[in-house]
């Protein structure tokens, strides 16, 4: 097997899995002659997406004093780039429908992804990072490489899980030993093919290596902590029964006092429950 993640994902049915509406939104946003109305029109044509976005914008994430009842209004307050990130975060849930559940409970997997996204958003808000929506998006996308591995090479996925269970190793460690790279690198390769911003790909690639030299050290530290928090709080299940150790340098990077942990976890739990009602109302 190649030790190149780009070769590893060739032939995946997920390469073009993002809905066409996302690319339409992106094209309009990148058009200097477009307006809020043009973006709103595209989103409003997808009723399900519109409903989810309005629920998120009216949630405690933003805590606006009055209800926002139109996509145009939400764009004028939140911003086009931010609303695009939120839209993509909702769409990725449908991009991997049909993955066999022989090795992983997909609903529990997405619960973990939502929890990681919520955790990243809460951490970003509390450490006053710019554009907290992008942290939510990286949380939602951080483990998509695991799904590519499960879909394209289920026999390798089984071998990895068996070795990790036998040797009490974290899944990303087993992936590196057996494949030469981990699911972060696979996810980054997929995000590159999807033509998402390079920031997303690099942060996803390094979320298990927050101390590695990176152009985005804060973003990577936040995602690393968010993943650990979601696992520690048992919000969903990523398929890895072990919890990575919290690295003091990651915590130092966000500049918060350890005494704020209970407050952070309380916010994460509350917003996770609210978000789950949006994505999984059943």
Could you explain how this protein is built, in words?
The structure is a single chain. This protein is mainly α and 282 residues long. Helix content is 65%, strand content 0%. The protein is built from 16 helices and no strands. The chain starts with a helix and ends with a helix.
Shape: globular
| Percent range for β-strand residues | under 5%
Q: What is the helix/strand order?
A: HHHHHHHHHHHHHHHH
What class would the helix/strand composition place it in?
A: mainly alpha
Name the average pLDDT: 89
Kindly, what is the distance between the CA atoms of the first and last residues, rounded to a whole number of angstroms?
Answer: 41 Å
Number of helical segments? 16
Number of strands: 0
**Main sheet makeup:** none
Low-confidence stretches: none
Q: Rg, please? A: 18 Å
Which range best describes the helical content: under 10%, 10-25%, 25-40%, 40-55%, 55-70% or over 70%? Answer: 55-70%
Summary of the model, kept short:
With 282 residues, the protein is mostly helical. Helices cover 65% and strands 0% of the residues. The protein is built from 16 helices and no strands.
Provide keyphrases for this structure.
0% strand, mainly alpha, globular, 16 helices, 282 residues
């Amino acid at each position: 097997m190649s030790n190149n993640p780009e070769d590893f994902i060739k032939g995946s049915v997920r390469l073009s899995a993002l809905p066409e509406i996302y690319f339409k939104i992106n094209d309009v946003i990148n058009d200097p002659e477009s307006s809020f109305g043009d973006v709103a029109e595209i989103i409003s044509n997808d009723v399900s997406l519109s409903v989810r976005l309005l629920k998120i914008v009216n949630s405690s994430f933003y805590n606006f004093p009055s209800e926002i009842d139109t996509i145009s209004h939400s764009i004028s307050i939140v911003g086009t780039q931010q609303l695009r990130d939120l839209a993509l975060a909702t769409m990725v849930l449908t991009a991997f429908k049909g993955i066999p559940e022989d090795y992983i409970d997909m609903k529990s997997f997405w619960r973990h992804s939502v929890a990681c996204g919520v955790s990243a958003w809460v951490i970003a808000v509390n450490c006053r990072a710019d554009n907290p929506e992008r942290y939510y998006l990286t949380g939602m996308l951080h483990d998509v490489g695991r799904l590519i591995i499960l879909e394209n090479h289920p026999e390798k996925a089984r071998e990895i899980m068996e070795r990790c269970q036998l040797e009490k190793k974290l899944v990303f460690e087993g992936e590196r030993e057996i494949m030469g790279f981990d699911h972060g690198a696979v996810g980054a390769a997929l995000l590159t093919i999807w033509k998402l911003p390079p920031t997303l790909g690099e942060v996803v690639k390094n979320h298990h290596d927050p101390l590695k030299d990176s152009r985005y050290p804060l973003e990577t530290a936040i995602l690393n902590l968010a993943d650990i928090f979601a696992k520690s709080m048992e919000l969903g299940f990523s398929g890895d029964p072990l919890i990575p150790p919290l690295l003091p340098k990651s915590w130092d990077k966000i500049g918060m006092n350890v005494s704020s942990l209970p407050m952070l976890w309380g916010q994460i739990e509350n917003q996770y429950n609210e978000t789950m009602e949006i994505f999984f109302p059943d």
